[in-house]
Amino acid sequence: MQRNIWLRQLFALVGKEFQQIVRDPSSYLVAGVLPFIFLLLFGYGITLDAGVLRLGVLNQSGGRHSLSLAADFAHSPWFATRPVGTMADAGRMMRDSVVQGILVIQQDFDEQLERDSAGAVQVLVDGSEPNTAQYIQNYSQGLIMSWQRTALPDGVAAALPINIQPRFWYNPAAKSVQFLVPGAITVIMTLIGTLLTSLVFAREWERGTMEAMFATPVSRIQLLLGKLIPYFCMGMFSMALCAVAAVTLFAVPFRGSLWVLVLLSSVFMLSALGQGLLISVTLRGQLVAAEAGLFSGFLPALLLSGFVFDINSMPPVLQALTRLLPASYFNTCLRTIFLTGDVWGVFGPSLLFMGLLASVLLGLVYRNLVKRLDA
After folding, report:
1. CA-to-CA dists, residue 299 to 153, 170, 188, 292, 294, angstroms
2. Which tens digit of pLDDT belongs to each residue from 149-207?
């Protein structure tokens, strides 16, 4: 009998919270519209791929080999080439950002190749954009090696160095969207989990309804579950939207198990909701709670989770800090389950940490949720 009463009270609290969510348009915005907009911005707006690179070609030789090499660059899908007459013109175009790099074929290029010796080719890149410069260098080296194998005589080709054939596992096309989109889901879910729940108790305090809640016979655990369950459902709904959009809109492969994804998302969502509820039960103002949710959840997930910046390239202090963030573990798990599959060597430690953190945060919420107005 008492168990039935307890459950009816809990269902009443959950139903009341769902009604409040339905009546609040901002809930639709944060849980439904915001994730979709963020995913579109992160998926289409952020890319680490170079695209088509602008390259000036200064052919000082003019022989058949140099013309053949210049033609290979012109027909490459990676470069949009422009002929350059002099080195001064090339320098001016580089300075004015007309081109991002310059291919200089030396004057004795054909003569050296006719003598079965190495011809001199120089690739100049704009170092103000290091990422683009690296792309130009790598693509140029690949094109020159390919041209050497096909265009030079057998005697010269046989003297070439070892042929390196790189292969990209799990992301054969080496598209940045394949790992940016799972990382974007991590940021979105962190924002939803912390922002939505950081306002839950703070809103009750500002509206003056918390006193009425304290006057009811419901227990602290019922209050906690009554707030936790609806927002957990909203978070998982947003996760489903993001996963479907990642596979359908951005063609990100999903090589893992759906049930494992649900497990990982559930444990991470509990940790994110625990963080938001702890902020809400500690800070009784909606504005302050929202700012705390953004600064403690969104910004670390964006900058320190490995979403854009590689964790191994960070200073040791920041690397240690990332080990305390559930977003960094969830980001690794999402990239693994989407691109690689079910790898429990990665999932196990991450689930353990996120589960322990969720337990600690929810335990602190329960302890601080005291039914006293002077608490």
Report:
1. 57, 29, 11, 10, 7
2. 776 665 455 444 434 455 566 677 667 788 888 988 999 899 888 887 887 777 777 77
The rounded Cα 217 to chain-centroid distance in angstroms is 45
Give bridge partners of residue 58 from the DSSP assignment. Answer: 104
**Among 127, 145, 134, CA closest to 50:** 134
Q: What sections of 107-219 are H helices per DSSP?
A: 109-114, 130-151, 154-158, 177-198, 200-207, 210-215
Alpha-carbon distance of 8 to 69, in angstroms, equals: 78
Cross-strand bridge partners of residue 319 = none
What gap in Å lies between CA 202 and CA 196, rounded to an integer?
A: 11
**pLDDT, tens only, 231-281:** 898 889 889 989 999 999 888 999 999 999 999 999 999 999 999 888 888
Residue 122 falls in which region: left (phi positive, over 0), alpha (psi -120 to 50) or beta: beta
Distance CA 180, CA 299 (A): 16
Q: Is 170 exposed, middle or buried (0-12, 13-18, 19+ CB in 10 A)?
A: middle
Beta bridge partners of 310: none
Instruction: Give which of 288, 282, 281 is closest to 200, Cα–Cα.
Output: 281
